[in-house]
């Protein structure tokens, strides 16, 4: 028998997991972050940030099919990004990582160890950027 839960589960809302409260899921939340200029760019990714009123950071990942034609590749990008975000020490900031250039084609393998290493290095550079850490200081939510 399935038990109905009346209260929303906040398990791990402040921990090192990637609970739903740590995700940007609504279209208007994505739009409010995309309105701002990119904070950091790498060869394949663009990072957008804006402050939020929450006690924790939130993440959204956009990996378009035209830049990563295989679902395996898109899922790898999302998985690596979430893992690095989960381990970062960001506070009250909304981050969106958007894939901006093709990472591979349908002709080659979907993922390789080399591709994963390169993705991890690029995404680490995004979140290590001083602009990402200072995003909470730059723009208060009331100004957006």
Quick recap:
The protein is α+β, with helices and mostly antiparallel strands and about 140 residues long.
Helix-strand layout with pairing:
Blueprint: H1 27-34, E1 40-41, E2 45-51, E3 58-62, H2 71-87, E4 93-99, H3 113-128, H4 130-133, H5 135-138
Read across the widest sheet, the strand sequence of neighbours is 1-2-4-3
Count of distinct strands:
4
- Largest sheet, if any? 4 strands, mixed
Morphology call: globular
Give the strand content: 5-15%
Which blocks of ≥5 consecutive residues have pLDDT under 50?
Answer: 1-14, 135-144
* Count of helix runs: 5
- Which structural category fits the helices and strands? alpha+beta
Structure description:
There is one protein chain. By secondary structure, the protein is α+β, with helices and mostly antiparallel strands. Helices cover 34% and strands 15% of the residues. It has five helices and four strands; from the N terminus they run H-E-E-E-H-E-H-H-H. The chain has helices spanning 27-34, 71-87, 113-128, 130-133, 135-138, and strands at 40-41, 45-51, 58-62, 93-99. It has a four-stranded mixed β-sheet, with helices on both faces. Strand 1 (40-41) and strand 2 (45-51) form a beta hairpin. Helix 2 (71-87) packs across helix 3 (113-128). The chain is globular. The chain starts with 26 loop residues before the first helix and ends in a 6-residue tail after the last helix. Residues 1-14 and 135-144 have low confidence and may be disordered.
């Amino acid at each position: 028998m399935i038990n109905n839960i009346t209260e929303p589960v906040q398990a791990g809302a402040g921990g090192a997991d990637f609970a739903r409260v740590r995700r940007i899921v609504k279209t208007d939340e994505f739009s409010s972050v995309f309105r701002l200029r990119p904070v950091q760019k790498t060869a394949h990714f663009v990072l957008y940030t804006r402050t939020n009123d929450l006690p924790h950071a939130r993440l959204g990942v956009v990996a378009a099919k035209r830049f990563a034609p295989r679902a395996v590749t898109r899922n790898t990008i999302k998985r690596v990004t979430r893992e690095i975000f989960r381990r970062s020490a960001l506070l009250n900031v909304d981050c969106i990582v958007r894939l901006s250039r093709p990472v591979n084609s349908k002709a080659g393998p979907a993922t390789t160890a080399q591709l994963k290493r390169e993705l991890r290095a690029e995404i680490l550079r995004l979140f290590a950027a001083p602009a990402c850490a200072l995003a909470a200081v730059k723009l208060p939510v009331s100004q957006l």
